[in-house]
Amino acid sequence: MSKSLNQESNPSKVYVLFYSFFLIPLMVVITGTSFFIIVKFLTLEPKSASDLLNDVKIGSASKRWQSAFELSKILANKTDSVDDILFRNQLVTAYSRSVHDDERVRMYLALAMGQTGDQFYGKTLRTGLNDENPATRLAAIKALGVLQYTPAVEDLQNIITDKNRKDVEYLTAVVSLGNMGDQSVIPDLIPLLDHEEVNIRWDTALSLAKLGDTSGLDIIADLMDRTYYSSYPEVDQEEANQAIRVAIHVSSNFRNAVFKEKLVTLAEGDENMEIRDTAIKTLKKVYGHQS
Fold it and tell me: What is the span of the domain harbouring residue 288?
């Protein structure tokens, strides 16, 4: 009887031992670790632009490009002041030395300089136009456009008239030239309205309109028509939405009967509520149209 009782109590004893010597300590460790992580998260201060630039200079390979990426985001959001000459010179030096680094470091540093809006970086970015690496070269082209660095206009004109360039370079240069606002490039842009690549035609029309030229208005009207994108199945819905938003914005520089008609159609029944609202506001602002 006693032996039987002992056998029945063994499972219970094993469970108690497991609970006392394994489960409880494990729960204590998990609770303590969770508390530590939460406290560390709450007390962790976001890195400044200077901190991130320092990580780019002395960090590990993976940390350098990640820090360059974060730096470009901070400067895009204008959340940190980077006007002092020390920071500017260090950023230029980091970019100059990145030519043999991971391409992502140089790409994101170029974009970071462009996001500052500081013309100080224009001369340095122009050196990136000669990079052998196509990805870093594209980043320099884009950054110069964001910076609106007009001394580089001739450099970008040379790109769009060079028959040996790849389409993606034409496209990036076209967008940047539109952002720079120099109307002297209009004669070089107009032939690209007939380019075989549709994206180049679209962005050329948009850039010309930004420069006040009407040569591509028919293309912009098409871009404001949602049914137009059914001919391009490779363009997904979000890309179509973005193209329509940009076309609406550019169209507001002109009073045009076709544009007005397209805007009315979007305002009255487009599937995207944000686009409807934008169309309504543009109709009111440009045409005095009341919904």
Answer: 216-291
Q: Which of 94, 110, 128 is the last residue of a domain?
A: 128
pLDDT tens for 145-199 read 999 999 999 999 999 999 999 999 999 999 999 999 999 999 999 999 999 999 9
Please tell me the distance from the alpha carbon of residue 51 to that of residue 70, in angstroms, as a whole number. Answer: 11
User: Residue 63 sits in a domain of what CATH number?
Assistant: 1.25.10
86: in domain: yes
Q: Are 108 and 65 in contact (CB under 8 A)?
A: yes
- How many folded domains does the chain comprise? 2
Residue 160 lies in a domain: no
pTM of the shown model: 0.80
CA pair distance 30, 199, nearest whole angstrom: 53
Per-residue pLDDT of 228-246, as tens digits, reads: 999 999 999 999 999 999 9
Number of other residues whose CB lies within 10 A of the CB of residue 21: 10
Is 287 part of a structural domain of the chain? yes
Q: What is the mean pLDDT of the chain?
A: 87
Phi/psi for 81 (5° steps) reads: -85, 130
In a domain, 172, yes or no: no
Residue pair 176/156 in contact by the 8 Å Cβ criterion: yes
Q: Which of 83, 103, 128 is the last residue of a domain?
A: 128
Q: What are the pLDDT digits (tens) for 256-269?
A: 999 999 999 999 99
Direct distance between the N- and C-terminal alpha carbons of the chain, in angstroms, rounded to an integer: 92
Confidence check: pLDDT of 108 > 80? yes
Q: Burial level of 103, CB count in 10 A (0-12/13-18/19+)?
A: middle
* DSSP helix/strand/coil, 148: coil
